[in-house]
Amino acid sequence: xxxxxxxxxxxxxxxxxxxxxxxxxxxxxxxxxxxxxxxxxxxxxxxxxxxxxxxxxxxxxxxxxxxxxxxxxxxxxxxxxxxxxxxxxxxxxxxxxxxxxxxxxxxxxxxxxxxxxxxxxxxxxxxxxxxxxxxxxxxxxxxxxxxxxxxxxxxxxxxxxxxxxxxxxxxxxxxxxxxxxxxxxxxxx
Length: 189
What we know:
By secondary structure, this protein is of the alpha/beta class. The protein has helices at about 25-30, 35-45, 55-60, 95-105, 115-125, and strands spanning about 5-10, 15-20, 50, 75, 90, 110-115, 130-135, 145, 155-160, 170-175. It has an 8-stranded mixed sheet with strand order 5-4-3-6-1-7-10-9. Strands 2-8 form a two-stranded antiparallel sheet. β3 (about 50), α3 (about 55-60) and β4 (about 75) form a beta-alpha-beta unit. It starts with a strand and ends in a 15-residue tail after the last strand. Mean pLDDT is about 90; it is low at about 180-189.
């Protein structure tokens, strides 16, 4: 059985997950204790992580300890990169192959950490089951978009929460394209 893939991400109100140079300093300073608690609750409910090379390299550049302990992390890359932790697996495969391998290993809830290119690829391939967005009350004006590519699809709101910083968290279920009804056609006969 395929695991649930959850795209949990922080976004500016105008739809960017990072500055054009990849920096995310704009939301680190705004985060408050209730948001950190919510993240820890989310993190405790996932089994593994799926990450793109760009996000992984950005984490390596920070020079800090590995921020996602206790969970296996599959990083999709073609490049030979250093492993930040024993829990990190660097591999070259498609997102669908990575999700299938995580499912075969028994993982049921996988966090799609990002970034934009990987999220767009996963979304287009129909791999994303849930989208959790922390909308920060900040406008970047430009940057790395929430999804680099994708296709039109409806979402169903399953939860929402307001944090003390003014950040809104919205949790959506992605509707299966087969279950969406196309608009009725009018015959002009």
